[in-house]
Amino acid sequence: FSLLVCYRALIFPLLIRAGKPTPFFTFVLAFLFCAYNGYLQGRSLSNYAKYPSGWLRDPCFITGILGWLIGMAINIHSDHILRNLRKPGETGYKIPRGGMFEYVSGANFFGEILEWFGFALACCTIESLSFALCTLFILGSRAKQHHQ
């Protein structure tokens, strides 16, 4: 979980090229949502979730971790493709090619949705499932807009 947060919060912003500025209100809402979600996930896992001693070998946990890792790899690779669509100074819309973009038009969104459902499966908490569903609805609607 912290690996993804480090990538998304620290590494990814340093890699993206300048584009349209993010409205301040959108930034504040995103920050508050991420802060609350991080608190909710951390509190849930550290204070309330109870796992049997063999949980790390359970097929549910293993499948969830594999889904999370595969989703993260898809997300990072898709972000790389998107960052390199245009040369510096070039504008205009370009259709991404390669990786999962050969199968879905919003490969970056698909990767992130897969990550959070993998996380939810590995954790088996209502909080992690809630965030996975939230991610599906938010990114699913963005993916639909991008596809159109």
Automatic annotation (TrEMBL):
It is a multi-pass membrane protein. It catalyses: 17beta-hydroxy-5alpha-androstan-3-one + NADP(+) = testosterone + NADPH + H(+); 5alpha-pregnane-3,20-dione + NADP(+) = progesterone + NADPH + H(+). Keywords: Differentiation, Endoplasmic reticulum, Lipid metabolism, Membrane, Microsome, NADP, Oxidoreductase, Sexual differentiation, Transmembrane, Transmembrane helix. Its EC number is 1.3.1.22. It comes from the Eukaryota. Pfam families: Steroid_dh. The chain crosses the membrane at residues 22-39, 60-78, 116-139. One of its GO terms (biological process) is cell differentiation. It is an enzyme of class 1 (oxidoreductase). It is found in: Endoplasmic reticulum membrane; Microsome membrane. Gene3D superfamilies: 1.20.120.1630. Residues 21-148 form the 3-oxo-5-alpha-steroid 4-dehydrogenase C-terminal domain. InterPro entries: 3-oxo-5_a-steroid_4-DH_C (IPR001104), SRD5A/TECR (IPR039357). Its main location: endoplasmic reticulum. GO terms for cellular component: endoplasmic reticulum membrane. GO terms for molecular function: 3-oxo-5-alpha-steroid 4-dehydrogenase (NADP+) activity. Belongs to the steroid 5-alpha reductase family. This is 3-oxo-5alpha-steroid 4-dehydrogenase (NADP(+)). It comes from Cuculus canorus (Common cuckoo). The lineage of its organism: Eukaryota, Metazoa, Chordata, Craniata, Vertebrata.
